[in-house]
Fold this sequence. Notes:
InterPro entries: MFS_trans_sf
Number of helices: 15
Keywords: Membrane, Transmembrane, Transmembrane helix
Transmembrane segments: 33-54, 99-118, 148-166, 186-203, 215-233, 245-269, 276-294, 306-327, 348-364, 370-390
CATH class of the largest domain: Mainly Alpha
Strand content: under 5%
Structural class: mainly alpha
Amino acid sequence: MSIGTVIGVVPIIGQLDWSKIFPSLDTLTGLKVSYAIFGMAEAFFSTIATFAPLEAFPVQYVGAVSAAVQVSTSLGASIQSEVYLLLKDNFTNFVQVYYTYMLVCTVVCGGLMVCAFWENSKLLHRSKSNLADDLEQRSLQSSLFSMNFLYMCLLFLLGVGFVFSYLDAAGDINAAAGLPASRATLTFGIYGALARVVANCALDYTRSKPNGGPLTYIALSLLSLAAGLAAAGTPSDPDTASVHVMNLFCSLGAGGLLGVTPPALRLLFGSGSLGIIYGLLYLLTAFGIPTWGLLLPSQGCTTGCFRAYCCTGAALFPVLAIGALLLGRGDDASRGYDYGRPVMPKGWFANFFYPLWEFGHIVFVCDRWLAWRFLRHFMGFLICYIPLNIQMQWNKQMMEEYKKHHEL
């Protein structure tokens, strides 16, 4: 974090007004170099701020921790946008004032993060400190050659790359349909934040249940993206209603995908080599963004020109969703009841009735399909027996009536 803070401070200092002392800094080339260096610092802050809490807190709270991080990030972006507008409206020398503000924020936030990480270094190096963790620590080699990593490569190249390209394209699609270009950004902010919070908070509860792992939420997010793109890509010239549907479902899908990806990486690969894995995957995202951009039309086009872009995503994302569901079936939570590690009772009374409790727990909680099989036989017997029993009672009544009126 110290390195990221220094990298962030240097380009901001370089962009302050040094024209009288160092004229060479006050050039367009110097501005581009400063932006490139500051982009590296932003990657430091973003990556560490996202994954450090996931490493520090116990893994059973990974969803809630990720939700808090996502909400804080969204709230911080909104606050910084408002500060930018306030400084621009109230200061004549706006550029220098804003650079000074950026310098103060970078130094203060970076310093606070360095102090916090220094005080909690054991928690932030859980895999090296022999702290308890319910995840199996995997080597970097085994992680890179796993099916999960192969799927994540496709997901970051196609799915996450599309989300970032969609942030640029959604405004143009809305404008072509006659809606304000800002409508896409507003919808993405509101519904995207909602999807992030819901997906991450639900993950803690469903992770221990069959088909409740992070890959299931990735699949749902991809299907939501596909539904929104299909609404805008199916008509040859979509109207405003179709674009509204696209804004809703694509915002939910993109927010859920970006929100659940960090805890998914933590749960699938552990924490030992998480930074390297995340860096490799985001390299693929850098290739995915311009690849999706090839499907976007030139400026000033109607909504029908975005049909290839929307239809490609609508056809591709269900395939990725099916892959996530198939991979999710191999998670520990999808393998049924773990008969080797049941939680044992503590008292004599509970020990005495433990066989009854274990039977009910297995039949009605862990392997509920057994209860359905029992119910199927019971209901089948009733369905077959009741008509025969009614017919038997009718025959007995008819025999009694016959005996009363006829001599044998």
